[in-house]
DNA sequence: CCATCTCCTG
DNA sequence: CAGGAGATGG
């Protein structure tokens, strides 16, 4: 079982998801007629009158889909007001016209809510069956005792489907694409539970047809079943799940290059509406450049802009720990600038005492360079474990305060990341994207630009390809969830978080280097 | 009780 | 990005 599911998702979350599925075709109290009609819950399942909230007066949009913005937690009744506020704010943030998605969908098809739900699910079933999805589904469920993955949920959804799919081509196509993508993803992810379980029941012929990826998974599965540490299977990705869990650090390859060494993209990437503008940019491919970027972080960059920017960043930061370091950069020699930004934000430096102060103070606080480094780390790991944090920030003393600040940083990084994902997914949907495969994240895409601007503002770091893949997967997860109306569930994002947390990579050794800051 | 996480707010 | 609230899990 993944550490993540233990650490982050409660059994109640699972229950919620179950309920959503369970109630799918039951005679649930029918909320407003404009709703998609896929997921409804009773008042026990959720702690808040969803529809009342979403239709609260003053909200710029009363679309059912707007509500989902209220985020991934069940809430106490006292927080209804917050939900309303948040809905408002997010409407603004989104900057997207409040088009009722349901309406869009209904324009294409002309059926009632219930029918739609059924149609979609029924089509899923057909689709899956023709692709051998049946065996996938049947096999992996019993083995996976952790909280339900999004795949689980999807499986259950279409399981309940009936057969009446031919009359709603547009809608069906959308859902078909969704399904295709999800299946593709499931097959591609060798560490996924699906493969774990497949190994147990697939016939040799079936196994062959699945190719090397699944065989790898099978090997891993065998290992697992033979009693090797369970953690191994998810080693590369779940370490971050609980920051308390300590994981032995694997040997790092010496000939590391910053370019991601991950496998090819899971999904074909046709051009898409989210990624339009050709990028003038700056695609640094050389390892040399990477190392240079690192040196800039490590030692301060001797040439031009980066160093200065780094310095100014340190001045601007308002964090308690480094807000005391305001000095004129122009009045200081380069070395002093570097040293100060790196180590001694809270000490007025005299040239003579630099070294001494370094010894005393360098490990007591996090600097802007640490922040910059953390942001770059985010390209590899969205959920770093405390072990990884310690290894990457070994120059600071890990007090409780420092630790929680680092954790908070990553929490903030994730927040921004997911907000962007949701924003772009909704945007794509409203722009009429009907095929998940159209949702790609390339280096020239607007989404990537936004992310890169946030985590790699100086643009002096070559973002690993793997990050783009993860971003793409995240975007598609959001797209799928939203297009299926799953976002009506207050905790709908958790399912996505759970998927994404497994996609963490190892942080390159450079980040752990003793010489690194 | 503490650590961690998400969400919200400033 | 930080602080705080609330939830959750060990």
- Tally of strands: 0
Approximate helicity band: 40-55%
Structural class: mainly alpha
User: What order do the SSEs take from the amino end to the carboxyl end, as H and E?
Assistant: HHHHHHHHHHHHHHHHHHHHHHHH
Overall radius of gyration: 25 Å
User: Main β-sheet: number of strands, strand sense, barrel status?
Assistant: none
**What is the distance, rounded to the nearest whole angstrom, between the alpha carbons of the first and last residues?**
36 Å
- From the 3D structure, determine the CATH topology of one domain: Arc Repressor Mutant, subunit A
What's the architecture of one domain, going by CATH? Orthogonal Bundle
Number of helices: 24
* Superfamily (CATH H level) name of one domain: Homeo-prospero domain
Dominant shape? elongated
What kind of assembly state do the chains in view correspond to? single chain
Q: What are the low-pLDDT stretches, counting only 5+ consecutive residues below 50?
A: 1-168, 190-289, 298-361
CATH class call of one domain: Mainly Alpha
Mean pLDDT: 53
Q: Beta fraction of the residues?
A: under 5%
């Amino acid at each position: 079982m993944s550490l993540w599911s233990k650490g982050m998702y409660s059994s109640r979350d699972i229950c919620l998801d179950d309920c959503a599925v369970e109630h799918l075709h039951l005679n649930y109290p029918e909320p407003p007629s404009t709703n998609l009609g896929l997921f409804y819950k009773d008042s026990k399942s959720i702690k808040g009158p969803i529809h009342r909230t979403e239709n609260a007066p003053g909200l710029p949009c009363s679309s059912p889909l707007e509500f989902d913005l209220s985020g991934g937690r069940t809430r106490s009744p006292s927080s209804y007001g917050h939900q309303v506020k948040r809905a408002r704010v997010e409407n603004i943030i989104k900057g997207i016209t409040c088009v009722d998605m349901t309406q869009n969908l209904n324009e294409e098809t002309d059926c009632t809510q219930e029918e739609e739900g059924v149609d979609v699910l029924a089509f899923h079933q057909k689709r899956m069956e023709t692709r051998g999805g049946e065996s996938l589904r049947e096999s992996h469920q019993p083995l996976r005792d952790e909280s339900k993955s999004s795949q689980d949920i999807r499986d259950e959804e279409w399981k309940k489907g009936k057969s009446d799919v031919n009359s709603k081509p547009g809608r069906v196509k959308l859902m078909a694409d969704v399904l295709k993508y999800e299946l593709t993803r499931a097959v591609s992810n060798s560490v996924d539970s699906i493969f774990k379980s497949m190994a147990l029941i697939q016939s040799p012929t079936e196994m062959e047809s699945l190719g090397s990826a699944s065989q790898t998974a099978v090997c891993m599965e065998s290992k697992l079943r033979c009693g090797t540490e369970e953690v191994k299977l998810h080693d590369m990705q779940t370490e971050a799940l609980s920051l308390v869990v300590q994981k032995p650090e694997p040997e790092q390859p010496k000939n590391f290059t910053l370019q991601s060494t991950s496998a090819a993209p899971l999904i074909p990437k046709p051009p898409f509406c989210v990624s339009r503008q050709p990028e003038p940019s700056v695609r640094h491919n050389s390892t040399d450049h990477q190392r240079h970027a690192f040196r800039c972080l490590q030692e301060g960059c001797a040439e031009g802009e980066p160093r200065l920017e780094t310095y100014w960043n340190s001045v601007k930061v308002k964090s308690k720990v480094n807000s005391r370091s305001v000095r004129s950069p122009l009045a200081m020699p380069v070395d002093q600038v570097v040293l100060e930004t790196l180590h001694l934000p809270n000490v007025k430096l005299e040239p003579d005492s630099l070294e001494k102060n370094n010894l005393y103070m360098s490990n007591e606080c996090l600097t802007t360079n640490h922040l910059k480094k953390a942001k770059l780390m985010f390209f590899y790991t969205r959920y770093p474990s405390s072990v990884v944090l310690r290894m990457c920030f070994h120059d600071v003393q890990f007090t409780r305060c420092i630790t929680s600040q680092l954790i908070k940083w990553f929490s903030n990084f994730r927040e921004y990341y997911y907000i962007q994902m949701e924003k772009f997914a909704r945007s794509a949907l409203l722009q009429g994207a009907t095929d998940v495969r159209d949702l790609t994240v390339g280096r020239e895409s607007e989404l990537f630009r936004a992310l890169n601007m946030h985590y790699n503002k100086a643009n002096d770091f070559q973002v690993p390809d793997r990050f783009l893949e993860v971003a793409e997967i995240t975007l598609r997860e959001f797209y799928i969830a939203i297009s299926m109306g799953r976002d009506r569930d207050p905790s709908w994002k958790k399912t996505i978080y759970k998927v994404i947390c497994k996609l963490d990579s190892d942080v390159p050794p450079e980040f752990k280097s003793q010489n690194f800051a």
